[in-house]
Amino acid sequence: MIKYAKNQITFMQYIFLIHGVQVGVGLLTLPRELAEKAGTDGWIALILGWLFSTLGSLIIIQVMKKYPNGTIIDLLTHFFGKWVGKIAAFIFVLYFAFLGSIVFVREGLFIQFWVLPQTNLFILLLLLSIPSYLIVRNNITILGRYAELVFFMTTWVLFFYSTPLKEAHWLHLLPFIKGGWEPILAAAKTTTFSFLGFEIAFFLYPFLQKKQKASIGIVIANILTLAVFLIVTIVAFTFYSPDEITQYKEPTINLLKIVEFRFLERLEIVFLSLYIFVISTTVLPLFFSTVLSASQLFGKQDHSKYVVWLLLLNLVYVLLLPQSLGGNRQLQKEIESISLILVYVFPICLWVYLWLYTCLKRRVLK
Amino acid sequence: MKRWFHVTLLIFFIVILSSCSGKAPLEDLTLAFIIGIDLDDENNLVFYELNPVFGEGTKVGIETYKVKAKTIRDSRRLFDALTTGEVTAGKIQVLLVGKRVLQHGDWFPILDTVYRNPTFSMSTRVVTVDGPVSEVISHHPTEKPQLSLHLKSLIDKNYDRTRAVKGTLQELHREIYEKGMTPFISEVKREKDLELSGISLLDNKGKYAQFLNVPEATLLLMLQNKKRREVTMTIPVLPNDGEKNIFHKNMISFAASKVKTKIKSGYKHNKFYFDIKVKMTINIVERLFPEERLNKEQLTKEVENELKDEINDLLKKIQKKKVDPIGLGLYARAYQYPHYKKVENNWGEAFAESDVNVSVKIDINSNGAVEQ
Amino acid sequence: MLFFRKYHNKKKQQSSFHIQNNDLSEKLISSQLLENIAEIQNIFSETPDLVVKNIVIKQTKCPAALVYLSGLTDTKTINNHVLNPLLFEVEKEQKDFDAQVSLGDVKENNTWQKIESAILAGNSVLFIDKRNKAFIFNTQGWPQRGIEDTTIESSLRGEHLGFTETGSTNIALIRRHIQNRELKMKEITVGARGNLKLTIMYLADVAKPEVLKELVDRLNKIDVDSILNAASLAEYIEDNPYSPFPQLFITERPDFAAAEILQGRIVTVVDRSPNVLIGPATFEIFFKSMDDYGARWLVASFIRLMRYFGFFVAIFLPATYIAVIAFHFEIIPLKLLLSIGASRERVPFPPFIEAIVMEITLEMLREAGIRLPAKIGQTVGIVGGIVIGQAAVEAGIVSNIMVIVVALTAIASFIIPNYDMGAAIRMLRFPMMIVASFFGFVGLTVGLMTLIAHFISLQSLGTPYGSPIAPLRFPDWKDLFIRFPEWSILKRPESTRAIQTLKAKSNRSEGDEH
């Protein structure tokens, strides 16, 4: 068993790790996806999605509290035995590996499309693999520091959105709830997926220094994520006409095309290059969870070897199968339903079970 | 073993990295600064391109090319055959569109590649040319800065003075797709010199609908709440004293430091109505008649009436052409959504039928430094 | 890397590389003077600078021999304070001590090993007939220079005394700043042939014991012939030998060393080296200079910020130039683009080659300037200025903009107060230029990401190197980018892992109000 007490993450690192996983590649297309479903009322759906994700996060923390010194896999092993633990580890390896790889490949595809159209996707991913390896092979403390640093390095990019905000047409947002609640609920489904990523708490919890702050931390992370999503979405909704916004594949990037300074134009190129950092805070914790689960599955202490294998698998996958943004999106849609089970259904069931279990045990003891 | 693995990996990286090549550097490119689209006499599409030529030292010359092609992308092939470097679109400053192109309703899809291709800049100014594009693009007076710079700053300066619109590709795209308003872009023409003549209004397909001169353009921008810096206007407030008076002693000029337009929308008797309230704080900067002829209250009244009349004229003009550059449709959508939804696709006509009430309120803030 | 390791292993196997054939470790001196002299001459065979002076002590009438190495001892001390009393003075009362000299530092010993090293260290040894112990007199005195102003880390307001090549002087220079009994020292000798004396200085109630233990363990592990200076000692004990960043702070300033001891760091004084090692080092201390505390805090903060800005400029400016020219010319505003385009028009090379040529020229000029005597150095500067500044541009080999970029980079890298960090930064810009030439901004980002990945996992003596930036420790930011007024910094930085955090009480008067 891995000693979690040795590598700890601080409260802030915990927040930024969760927030980092939530804000990733999805932000680029989010305004369009919301507009497609709910028009300019999409932002209400964001708040709904945030409510769901906060509830889900709190349930996960409640579950993890039952066995505070281990990851979800240790917890399952503790309550259900070794084999359930192994199976869970296997499932988590697959889940996180797929999720991580999809985002990783999408990152490459975005860069290729917007910044370096002449460069081979394989080479781009190979390039991105170098820092990924250097970070993921370390322990969680390093990852926590990375998430923290990147948050402070990249958040100021949001200020660039004040330029499109100057040409905002707030009338676009009116009237509220123009098409009834139905489209908003449909969009809430999309936003629920945008907030995915807090399931990383399954693996972060044992590393947290002050466990009593786990719930408040995850709520803060969700609020931060909501804030980022809301800012970008509202800027996009007010800047673009509601009839126009669905024309753009990635409105978040397009918004920056109009930002000009005296010394710098075409900010979207700079932005996308910086955005690699933001996406990396999604990919790297996912990869870390993958290799952590893998090391638990095989009962090894050192996970750095699995990082190499994971990255190599990704590269081989990209080399063998042609990639496209559409195909990538399709894959993500498919994994989203699994996410829903893993992130909402599974913890709730587990929670109810553990609750009954402890109740019964107490009664038996009495 | 592990070390060997690392070394192999490193060599592998180096080999792969060194095999990939970058883009052509700046000096091997031909940067298109202006693109022009026009129709020739037989209605063939003609494309113009202007690019800088870097010479000895810091001197920069320019050259222009003209080709006949089917699309913008297709024209690049032909430009490439003419220029030294690869023609690139990343730095297009101005897109000139001939009035003859705009008179055909379905011209907008020509610009598809501009939006589809991420290398294009979205802040390229789109400008109508009254007359052949070739006349503007071949206008290179030696005493003026380079045409692309000149044209761009011409538009930007007038935009700052609330006399023209930037009309960037981004704005044009928005206005074309937005159902509640119609597009408008700045218009230039060349007589002896290149001059900004006003604004061209397009209908919601992009077809040329109406021309507005500069004072009208200012009014339009004021109605849109798009005042930038101080707006200066010169209007008559008294009847002209007679034909022989060569000095227009009835004129007054003022600078509006504050312009606030409030629009209220409603729906009555199966049509929309709009209440437009313009509130201005003005400083008088020029008055050619003595104070006795009009006291402050009268003057306020006169200016208000004059402005109101001008705005009403403007509204009539655009309603006649069934275009809505003000974007009243946005107000209709925001406050009268169910009614708007019905006429959404025909907003121009619904707007033409709607009632628009204009009221202007003036607050004279100062009379300038002269005591009179 | 593989080859080095193999070589290293081989070296370890023949671990007896420095033990001499004549093993002295257990041998004691005899009570016969003649035997001892014979042994000495045996040990120091073929040593012409060995002096064996046979005397008869006047007090006791005993034959004796004074042995020393002539270059390493102070002749005056030996004549006046050793030989003179022994040969001429008679005192009535003291009978129990038969080697009466007027010296403070006198030791007695009877092992040959100690005697040998004492002689080698510049002491003189007195053998007396019929005694099985020898006296060791501290008569060290070798050619040394006086204390001079610091040369590399010069400062305006700081102390103008630099460390010298004598360890004891250096210790004294530090001790003058910290007159406290908690200032403890540990002595470690390193190097079988060099016998380098290291003195670890720390505040016992402030420095973290784990860090101290880590340092001592690492120093004890060193098993080499000799170490000639502080920098090579640092190489033996740093955490990551492959890192471009210096992980121990090497300084020639006693005030800086004392300041860091007070912060909770540990200073290793290296005898015979005019520098001391400070550890655990964090990234930020390489951006501090003593002058920051000699100037008013606003001024100091401004300079600090410029240094950090310079850090990024020095690493990324040439790479950004390459990336922009070769990939993303779109981001340059029109007017600037026109002037860059015009100046690049005649350049026959791609931007990468252009930049590499200029950067390497600059590096060579810099290196040439350092090693040459000052008079020739000036010529190098003039030649370099003409070559870089004018001829190359006029010949159309490089563009004006490139010259500006190179000059800015150079200035930015020289603004870093620490030489090692400055050198590291200058080196780092080359890999950045390479990735930028392949991938533009994306390459730059990945380069930065790799740098960050390395930066956040680097440690110095088991302490996070990136602190207080990563891990984030906001209380330490009071003395990071902005130097807050001295009276507002009440705590020692967390980055040093000091066990006693409070260092001051807020007792500033309230200013104008009273």
Architecture blueprint of SSEs:
The complex is a heterotrimer of chains A (366), B (372) and C (514).
Chain A: H1 11-22, H2 26-38, H3 42-65, H4 72-80, H5 82-114, H6 121-136, H7 140-154, H8 162-166, H9 181-194, H10 201-204, H11 214-239, H12 251-254, H13 267-297, H14 304-320, H15 325-365
Chain B: H1 2-19, E1 29-31, E2 34-39, E3 45-54, E4 60-68, H2 72-80, E5 86-88, E6 94-98, H3 99-102, H4 112-116, E7 125-130, H5 133-137, H6 147-160, H7 169-177, E8 184-190, E9 194-202, E10 208-213, H8 214-223, E11 231-236, E12 251-268, E13 271-287, H9 296-320, H10 328-335, H11 337-343, H12 347-353, E14 355-366
Parallel strand pairs in B: 1-5, 2-6, 6-7, 7-8, 13-14
Antiparallel strand pairs in B: 2-3, 3-4, 8-9, 9-10, 11-12, 12-13
Helix pairs in contact in B: 10-11
Chain C: H1 2-13, H2 33-43, E1 50-56, E2 63-69, H3 75-88, E3 106-109, H4 112-120, E4 124-128, E5 134-137, H5 167-175, E6 183-190, E7 196-203, H6 209-221, H7 230-237, E8 249-251, H8 254-263, E9 266-270, E10 276-279, H9 297-326, H10 334-344, H11 351-371, H12 374-394, H13 400-414, H14 419-457, E11 459-460, E12 463-464
Antiparallel strand pairs in C: 1-2, 2-4, 3-5, 4-5, 6-7, 7-9, 8-10, 9-10, 11-12
